[in-house]
Amino acid sequence: MATQEHDDHEREYDLRWADAAEHKEPSARARMLAARWKDNPPGPVPFRPEPSSRGPRRSSWVSTAVILGCVALVIVLLGYLNLRSSY
Length: 87
Prior knowledge:
66% of the residues lie in helices and 0% in strands. It contains 3 helices and no strands. It is flat and about 75 Å long.
């Protein structure tokens, strides 16, 4: 049991030591992208996509009507089942 606590303490110390490091090595993906972009930098990318790239959007009232219809259907179904079970 004492060995387990000792190992946990050493692991916690190692994590604090690693987090406090002044220089952290970039990940493999970051190194790969940096090497690729050195010769061929990426072009500007818009924050949001073009509006035409999206599919057709339904208005919010249609979604609201569908949700309210589903809720009403569940209420009616539960009432019907409750009515049948009381006989």
